[in-house]
Amino acid sequence: MEPVNAAIIYYSATGNVHTLAKAAAEGAEKAGANVRLRKVGELASAETIDANPAWGKHIADSADVAEASIDDLAWADAVLFGTPTRFGTPASALTRFIEGAGVLWRQGSIADKVCSAFTATGTAHGGQESTLLALGHVFYHWGGIIVPPGYTDPVQFETGNPYGTSHAASSGPPSDVTLRAAHYQARRVVDIAAALKLGRAAA
Ligand SMILES: Cc1cc2nc3c(=O)[nH]c(=O)nc-3n(C[C@H](O)[C@H](O)[C@H](O)COP(=O)(O)O)c2cc1C
User: Which InterPro entries is this protein grouped with (predicted)?
Assistant: First the structure.
């Protein structure tokens, strides 16, 4: 069987979600997937970015990450979206990208992908679940197969979020536990996508 194609598509202003996305990419690769780690394009004004030195620094530090295209979504058997929480919802840079998938939706080619999501907030109760559930709405509309991490691995009892890997930036950079959770989430997504791919090939 051909390996699973896993697209890890994220937005990150100051690097936290980028770090989670890299851990997820490692997890997906270790699980045997072909991986595309992609950032979505920036929407913020130069004035907004300049007001936060960490934002500009992250843009420079992540210059080598390719920008996501709709082709990456079309290619993927499994899609993991990563986004900071913005007022309890996904960042507009990611939702703009998602709206570009309308063309795939019209063609009927966005359905049946295995989908999952991860996020970072400023604070522990700043809306991680609401952001992840909002991305779940997208997956429902696509006819996606939503694969949350649940409490299906010991690391999930340490990190504590069954909806998707989540990080509170006020605690510093993502911890080892959070990175292991991102790694695990991606592995679980790839394993389930592989089982589906195998079943479909045999059907
Ligand atoms: C416009 C804006 C809105 C935000 N809204 C929230 C929020 O609702 N809850 C929260 O905890 N943090 C909020 N934050 C903080 C970000 O979620 C936090 O900085 C995040 O970890 C950044 O991830 P990044 O480093 O990948 O950009 C907000 C930040 C911005 C710029």
Answer: Flavodoxin/NO_synth, Flavoprotein-like_sf, Flavoprotein_WrbA-like, FMN_Rdtase-like_dom
Query: What's the pLDDT band for 126 if we cut at 50, 70, 90?
Result: very high
Mutate to test the pocket of ligand 1, among 85, 128, 170, 179 (most ligand atoms within 8 A of CB): 85
The structural domains of the chain, with segments of one domain joined by +, span: 5-202
Instruction: Look at the domain 5-202 and name its fold.
Output: Rossmann fold (3.40.50)
Q: What is the C-alpha to C-alpha distance for residues 75 and 196, in angstroms, rounded to an integer?
A: 16
Q: Is 12 in the pocket of ligand 1 (CB under 6 A)?
A: yes
pLDDT value of residue 1: 81
Sign, CA dihedral 68-70-71-77, equals positive
Residue of minimum CA distance from atom 4 in ligand 1: 86
- CA 46 from centroid of its chain's CA atoms: 25
Mean pLDDT of 11-32: 98
Note whether 3 and 203 are within 8 A (CB).
no
Is residue 78 within 8 Å of residue 7, measured between CB atoms? Answer: yes
Is there an atom of ligand 1 within 6 Å of 134 CB?
Answer: no
